[in-house]
Amino acid sequence: MKTTKVLVCNVGSTSLKFKLYLMPEKNLLAEGKIERVGTEEAIYYYGNPDRNLTIYEEQQLVPDYLNGIQRFLNDLTGEETGAIRHVEEIEVVGFKTVLAKNYYGVHELTDEVMEGMKFYMGIAGSHNGPYMQAIEQFQKLLPSARFIGSFETGFHQTIPMERRIYGLPYEWYETYGIQRMGYHGASHGYIAGRIDEMEPEGYRMVSCHLGGSSSLCAVENGKSVDTSFGMSLQTGILHANRAGDTDTSLVPFLLSAGMSLEEINEGLVKRGGLYGISGVSNDLRDLEQAAKEGNERAELAISVFVTNIVRTIGSFWAEMGGLEYLVFTGGIGENSVMIRERVCERLKHLGVCLDRQKNLSGEKEREISAQDSAVKILVIPTNEEIEVARRVCRYLERRK
Ligand code: ADP
Fold first, then answer.
1. Which pLDDT value is given to residue 224?
2. CA 78 from centroid of its chain's CA atoms
């Protein structure tokens, strides 16, 4: 393909992350990050590797996405800071979009696709809402660029129907598309790509993306064949604040017990997960510290998290009929020595054998299994943005 500048945008409920790449070379030209959008205490970061320049500012006023995007574009084109001269040089903006009805892979963000995102506001509102806002602002600021969404569900389209369909009235699937969707597609897809490069023969892998939001993905020869995530992002294994899989009967029960739907939802989404069980924090680092100091609920939260992971790996292993690779990624997967150790310890009877020394430290991307381990255990830092840029470019190539 011809050299193209692709801006990848990752939108959170109060954060914006940008990476500008020169594709297909994959050169990072600039990056930016704004946290606490909507406040007077926003944190702004901008980096330009070619100029060896970084800007880091706290206590900034960033009232909305438009301001945040504008601030980044100003630095991106600034005389002293810039990586490009004019915003018109950005030909494509790729978004790590989440969920849209009937649109799963990579799509131009047309009115129809935006309608598809709107359809699932009730399922993925905290993601789709901010994305739709950010996309609209970008469309105003960069009128000549193309806007493409790489939906997180796309990587999971290869999951067979028997693992996707719920035991619910079939017409709910037909009418509303209710099914196991799977997310973290850019991350699991990136990990699968790395294993593809290492393993030309067939392989079976479980990719563990563990962070503020966590999911496991079963991968056979580069393709997703199962995921711990269900229809919404509230499902699967325990998250930082979200409950993960729980019992649907709890909702009508708690309603009848006098709780409002808002209270129940808040419990499931904000007051659950690692935070809910521990009552200490949603950050695993705090829990590890508290557990060391004897806090029993922090220890319980960690044990539940590890059990969720082990149980999921076991079921994927059984489904695939074997396992060659176990990969840890995400903020927790890449950094928590303890979680990797405890998960692998629980899988010892299946031949998973960790090299404790290699697990402790070393290069960022590394193998941490012992020589006699039946499964190769790896730590691979994820790179969701480059995966989105790659997918967007593949889409553009196909559409030529
Ligand atoms: P998100 O899913 O929000 O993108 P990340 O993948 O960045 O989050 O993961 C953030 C989490 O990673 C933090 O909440 C923290 O619990 C965990 N984490 C980061 N560094 C460490 C560490 N050294 N030890 C244990 N946990 C860590």
1. 98
2. 31
Q: What is the residue with the minimal CA distance to atom 3 of ligand 1?
A: 212
Q: Indicate the pLDDT class of residue 399, thresholds 50, 70 and 90.
A: confident
Task: Return d(Cα 220, Cα 168) in angstroms, integer.
Answer: 28
| Cα diameter, the chain | 62
Say which DSSP state 121 is in: H
Residue 188: per-residue pLDDT: 98
- Answer yes or no: is the C-beta of 240 below 6 A from any ligand 1 atom: yes
Measured in Å, residue 228 CA sits from the centre of ligand 1 at 19
Residues of the chain with CATH 3.30.420.40: 4-151, 185-384
CATH code linked to domain 4-151: 3.30.420.40
Decide if domain 185-384 falls under CATH 3.10.180.10: no
Query: Stretch 283-289: mean pLDDT, rounded?
Result: 97
Binding site membership of 292 for ligand 1 (Cβ less than 6 Å): no
User: What's the pLDDT band for 385 if we cut at 50, 70, 90?
Assistant: very high
What is the chain's mean pLDDT, rounded?
96
Phi, psi angle pair for 62, to nearest 5°: -130, 85
